[in-house]
């Protein structure tokens, strides 16, 4: 991607089509159906991929079925955004086939989080912006009226809002600029040393995870530290790590992460509302941002 100018998908307009697809785990149909009128009220035309409700083991269809829905949406000139129904596991199965598509010819917005971080990594490798954001369950349950859904809708329509978050005692103050990348830590770490590796020098990485013990997250960070990848970052944004317990070595995930980044001097922002939580603020992957961190606040400003 270093040789590719970053492309921004065209902002959505009234009458644009939005595909809802399931590239990973099984989704309850009602969550998707309840999301459709919310998107329609915004003036868009949502539709459900042919294989969205399929089942194959724990997956929403076979690899080929899930790929087919994504490929059809990505290549359809009238579809301007792809909203992933849910995460789970399975996107990695599709990366090799998706990588062969001419994605830069007509870039579309890809939206989702959790396992969808693999698709954001794909788009980053192609030099295309995408949005790490809530999916159908969140949008349906709030009727699209919560701050995060409204922010997502505005970003799809071309807005690039700045974010400010309350500070943390763990924050390491500083200012940096770089390409914003990241998502679920286990997913993006699993793509290290592949064509879809997003953890590169001078980038600002944001991370979150769910149900991972502290020692497993530490092991991932040690791998990144020993390889030199962690120390080469321009900045780190620590989102929400949920469903874990303190252990005898660390009282919190934040405490452990602060030890892991202690040898480096880039700014580190904690307490960001990103992840498997009700308040999951949209992040525009592959945008150029400025990160400003103090113990009182953290700001993320979009500059390109």
Give the strand order, joined by hyphens, for the main sheet: 6-13-12-7-8-9-10
Order of helices and strands: EHEHEHEHEHHEEHEHEHEEEE
On the 0-100 scale, what is the average pLDDT?
Answer: 97
Number of helices: 9
Low-confidence stretches: none
Structural class by helix and strand composition: alpha/beta
Cα Rg: 18 Å
Envelope shape: globular
Number of strands: 13
Biggest β-sheet strands, sense, barrel: 7 strands, mixed
Question: Strand fraction band?
Answer: 15-25%
Gap from first CA to last CA: 16 Å
Q: Considering DSSP H and I runs of 4 or more, what fraction of the residues is helical?
A: 25-40%
Would you spell out the secondary-structure blueprint of this structure?
Blueprint: E1 17-21, H1 29-41, E2 45-48, H2 63-75, E3 79-84, H3 95-98, E4 109-112, H4 117-125, E5 130-132, H5 136-142, H6 147-156, E6 163-166, E7 174-184, H7 185-189, E8 203-210, H8 214-227, E9 235-242, H9 253-260, E10 268-269, E11 283-285, E12 288-293, E13 297-302
Parallel strand pairs: 1-2, 1-3, 3-4, 4-5, 7-8, 8-9, 9-10
Antiparallel strand pairs: 5-11, 6-13, 7-12, 12-13
Helix pairs in contact: 1-5, 8-9
Protein model, in words:
This protein is 27% helix and 23% strand. It is globular, with a radius of gyration of 18 Å. It contains 9 helices and 13 strands. The two termini are 16 Å apart. The chain has a 7-stranded mixed beta sheet with strand order 6-13-12-7-8-9-10. A 6-stranded mixed beta sheet has the order 2-1-3-4-5-11, with helices on both faces.
